[in-house]
Amino acid sequence: MLQFFSQLTLADVHQDVIRNIVSLRESQDLFDDLTDNPEEWGLAQQVEDEVKPPPYRSVTPVIHRPFEDAEWFSVIAWPFNNWQKSRFSDGSFGVWYGSDSVITTVYESAYHWYHGLLRDAGFETERVVGERKVYSVGCHAAMLNMKGAVQHYPELLHKTDYTFAQSIGARIHREGHPGLVVPSVRHNPGENYVVFNPAVLSNPRMKCQLTYRLDGSKIVIEKSPGKTWLQIAIEEF
Fold this sequence. Notes:
Blueprint: H1 2-6, E1 9-22, H2 38-51, H3 69-81, E2 85-86, E3 89-90, E4 96-99, H4 102-118, E5 129-145, H5 163-175, E6 179-183, E7 191-195, E8 201-215, E9 218-224, E10 227-233
Parallel strand pairs: 5-6
Antiparallel strand pairs: 1-5, 2-3, 4-7, 5-8, 6-7, 8-9, 9-10
């Protein structure tokens, strides 16, 4: 482990990174299943407004403009508040993942959509549709650059065994480093930005909306409804 970290360099990151999250193309009234009375919808919305968290405000408002609260919480804060196991976390702390391009996020998210959701639920033979939103997020941090180390430590990019990567993530989290840059496992030559400190992220802006369609042995991705933008064969995973 010590030898691994001694080979790393720093990447001074000051750029937008791309975040791909589950979302609906069109907003829906979340209370219309509870009652058919529009007045009661309004009452439920009023109750929600009274108990939801206050809007996010930057700790440095001169530099960072206030963010609309829904985008901040869904695009940036969610993984830090909802811990899950992932490549660089054993589930005991939150990690935020972004990528260098929309295509890289598609390959990464499509893999987890298929293997982590559809196949586990037994839906791999169904014609399933998923909807996503893609955001640009400002990232400003001195991050550990792991691109040069992976040739000597290929287990860092193992397709299914995250043991080594999680041990790296545990140390980075324990010591308070803001994040790391690592090659994408799912999309060559893409890169992923793995963030452990939400303070280095800012200004989420929606970039595009996507639809994922499971169609037999491939996943079809649409930017415009009904128009294929990209296809990924399941065997590529």
